[in-house]
Design brief:
Helices cover 62% and strands 0% of the residues. It has helices at residues 10-27, 30-36.
């Protein structure tokens, strides 16, 4: 069984992770991507 089955925040978590991946792809730099996503 998938760990997010039945959890309301499953889509939100997936979209957040997608945002991080896209930021790294756009910035081509992990540090700048983290800053753009407000991740320390």
């Amino acid at each position: 069984m998938h760990p997010f089955v039945g959890q309301r925040n499953a889509a939100v978590m997936s979209l957040t992770k997608l945002k991080y991946i896209v930021a790294v792809a756009c910035e081509k730099h992990f540090g700048r991507a983290a800053e753009a996503c407000s991740v320390s």
